[in-house]
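Q: what does this look like with zinc ion bound?
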Amino acid sequence: MSRQLAVGIDLGGTNIVTALVADDGQILGIVSRRTDACRGADCVVGEMADTVNGLISENSVSQDDVVGLGIGTPGPLRLSKGFIHRSANLPGWENVPIRQWLQEKTGLSVQLENDANAAAYAEHWVGAGKDFGDQVTLTLGTGIGAGAIIGGEILRGHFENAAEFGHTIVELDGRPCSCGQKGCLEQYASPGNIAKYAIEQIRKGSESSLGPVLKANGAFDSQAIAEAARAGDSLADTIWDEACRYIALACVNIQHTVNPEMLVLAGGMSKSGDFLLGRVRQHFVAQTWKIFEDKPKIVLSNLGGNAGVIGAAGLAWKAHRSGAACLNTATVK
Ligand SMILES: [Zn+2]
């Protein structure tokens, strides 16, 4: 008997990852292509559909064995309409009816989701938070994406953009954010922003072992900061520790708003492993309340960089099992 599969797509500002995923979350085929968002949404969506159709035929999968397609994209989205409303990561994309376009071009039922929600769903489905019904995932990437799973379902809220913890304000009149607010968490704790901040400090004359790295390469990332901090670099340690303190602050705020059993740290910064987790846990204990024992477990993602694409496919599986996929298919012309 042939094996059924779902297609997952993780649409990012830099890359589009497309995968065939089995009902246990296992990836059976995966392709990553660069996102050329400036060429226009219709052109990029057309190429995405070609990639999906190519992946299905290259892996000798019958179209009848594909249960559906899930796509995680940067937001904000209009989920009920299947639109990408607008995205800082996809310049020029406005009110793109991506669900309908993909359904028309692939013939598959399509589930659209915010990319950070898709990653959070993956952690709940097959990742570090497997079998935990109430959990929040913070994806520490270029910015900070977040998704909350409550009672096994993605928390959406009335305007369908709940759990944007990366844009919770942690400093009044703080650093400006690309979202238009000031003082957002991601300005103080995302890997992209802490690297930017460290580079600024070195250019202003701060002593650091990262100075020669900056001179040689023109830039460095948050992992370089973690490595320098581990090796005893004072500037790197101060910046890394401060980022961990802000992430812990966010965990306390999430504890008091969502009250999850588990918090999962994912994304590029989680590659620093215990050097991230240990500091965050330490600052969490220092900051959280002392009057009640409802402290969530804080853990690292175990899905590597593939949480987004696995979660997107997982949502296609979920829709298939619930019968929602059949309803979506009926709208394909
Ligand atoms: Zn913001």
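The domain at 5-115+306-329 is CATH 3.30.420.40 (Nucleotidyltransferase; domain 5). The chain has eleven helices and 13 strands.
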